[in-house]
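Researcher: I'd like a structural prediction for the single chain below. Treat it as a standalone chain; there are no partners to consider.
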Amino acid sequence: MLAITVCISIFHLLVLSGMVPYDIVWGGRLKNETQMYRFEIVSLSINLLLLAVTLIKAGYLKSRISRRIINSFLWIFAVLFTLNTLGNLMSANIFETIIFTPLTLLSALCCARMVMEKPDRP
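Model: Treating it as a single chain, here is the predicted structure.
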């Protein structure tokens, strides 16, 4: 999950920088750069939150946040990735459908799996 989240965050940075065209994200429905910046900043923020939650769950980042709250966040991410998988299936962009549908499905499964992991790393 860490590798996926880091790679997706880098991808969103590439979209924000203009190195990747924004018409291949968000179902190909973004109309202008202003929309792209808003949506991509939200995406990047969510991915950075997921990265922090994953690092806490794995024991790489110390936090006083309870295991129950971390697991709740992971369930929320599992649901979001499941919904995103469905959205990717309906994307107007074939690249998004082919590449990101399996990636978001894998992310949903990884988040659910992390919740089921009982022992956190010491």
